[in-house]
Write a structure and sequence with these properties.
The structure is a homodimer. Chain A has helices spanning about 1-15, 25-35, 115-125, 125-150, 155-170, 185-190, 195-210, 225-230; strands spanning about 35-40, 45, 55-60, 65-70, 75-80, 85, 100-105, 105-115, 170-175, 175-180, 210-215, 220. By secondary structure, chain A is of the alpha+beta class. Chain A has two domains: about 1-150, Jelly Rolls (Sandwich); about 155-230, Winged helix-like DNA-binding domain superfamily/Winged helix DNA-binding domain (Arc Repressor Mutant, subunit A, Orthogonal Bundle), CATH 1.10.10. In chain A, strands 1-8-3-6 form a four-stranded antiparallel beta sheet. In chain A, strands 2-7-4-5 form a four-stranded antiparallel beta sheet. Chain A binds a DNA duplex through helix 7.
DNA sequence: TTTCCTATTTGCTCCAGGACAAAGAACGGC
DNA sequence: GCCGTTCTTTGTCCTGGAGCAAATAGGAAA
């Protein structure tokens, strides 16, 4: 059992972007140095403001990364999926986590503490290079979302968010494509910088038009192409 | 003359975050491999969509980094100042520049092409580590601005933007603190995700209250503490 | 100085979407 | 099955700030 789990984690690491190009031996070494952490839905890997002791790589499940303002407004920075890093501040010298990481589904991650992280990056420069690359990609992504938030209307932003979620976590079902983790109106609102009320209205309207079909914390996209049109603000 | 310029550039590199910890010899090497680029106000170092051949480090002047949407809405990602990098996509494998870099004042930068960049990072791992760190800091900064855009009202965001600009480019004058490069209402609007009209109204109201004093593309903060209060949304 | 161009101000209108309230609906636990 | 909790929907109200138009003001160039 234990061994089986280790094995499935190995599979994930093998294809994780961060570890691309490492040989088996190096990979084994990385795994050996990792701490395994498992969380059930709602549990947190770490909270905003905690000492940033480790960085994580998600092996299984789904993790919501959120930030909260002093006034209590929460925003969702991203949803991390299998093979993605989260809590990577230690890689670049941050002292505290700037966000909270919450398991959305039952999740397991591997974690490396700060000295180990530094050692790995020294020993395997490819890891450092991949980290740089991934960070850069993330920066580009956030910049894009910033731009969208600054220039687009709510409906379009919600459509974009859904399109992205479909790419990351879409699962074909007979009615269409299901976002395969529980996602509330509130979550979607915090992901797009609006309120749950507005999200609810938008989804209702889309439901009427047959674009989606939704339930409690559950969304199925029936006509993905129409959703893309909405996201790109095309007419049809 | 030529030598004098090289010398002043050397001074900048010596304290630039990216090159922290390099010895003189390494620094000389970096300079030797760099291309020197000079632009006058309004000229561009590169445009969004161009092949990302080099990355830049600003030695003198001020550079505005902007993104534009297909619909023509422009947003300002940041203003880079002396010693800061811009156009750093090549460092992490991007193919095209995702933004445009325009000189706001007469600016000189050093630039390294892609193969040289890679070589430098290999040869001097400290540079790679600094790059990772700087990218991380920038990510944190953008995340923060995203959060502010999502949760705060315009007036507060404009105040925050000005506070940041004061930190980056504030110069004491007898009337208060001057933002020492030309900055229009439009620029400030694109920096905060609003319109020039709204910015103008806000500045007018602040001027009435004696917080600032402004002219054409020119802002002096007379009571920085009050501006901070506005940025933090405190009462007084 | 005059002229032209660009930046700024200000008035007015209007609506997207935030805020609140209250009534369902779905689920998990017992 | 019943209950309490958590989500969701929908109605109503209302305002922040966008959009447009037009007047004004600063600078640069000639």
């Amino acid at each position: 059992m234990r061994v089986l789990e280790r094995n499935s984690e190995r599979q994930v690491l093998r294809v994780a972007p961060l570890f691309q190009g490492l040989n088996e031996e190096a990979l084994e070494n990385c795994i050996a140095l990792a701490l395994r952490v498992e969380k059930t839905p709602g549990e947190m890997f770490f909270q905003q403001g905690d000492q940033a002791r480790r960085f994580f790589l998600l092996c299984r499940g789904r993790v919501k990364v959120t930030q909260i303002t002093p006034e209590g407004h929460q925003v969702v920075a991203r949803y991390a999926g299998q093979g993605q890093m989260f809590g990577c501040v230690p890689m670049y010298g941050g002292k505290e986590y700037p966000a909270t990481a919450t398991a959305v589904t039952r999740s397991t991650a591997l974690a490396w503490d700060r000295p180990t992280t530094d050692r790995l990056m020294e020993q395997y420069p490819r890891v450092a290079i991949s980290a740089l690359q991934l960070l850069g990609d993330e920066l580009a992504e956030v910049r894009l979302r910033y731009q969208e938030l600054a220039t687009e209307r709510v409906e379009q932003r919600v459509a974009r968010a859904l399109v992205r979620l479909v790419r990351q976590a879409g699962k074909k079902v007979d009615a269409g494509v299901l976002i395969e983790f529980p996602l509330s109106r509130q979550d979607l609102a915090e992901l797009t910088g609006t309120t749950l009320y507005t999200v609810s209205r938008i989804l209702s309207s889309w439901e009427e038009q047959g674009v989606i079909q939704s339930g409690r914390r559950r969304i199925v996209i029936r006509t993905p192409h129409r959703l893309v049109s909405l996201a790109e603000d095309l007419l049809p």
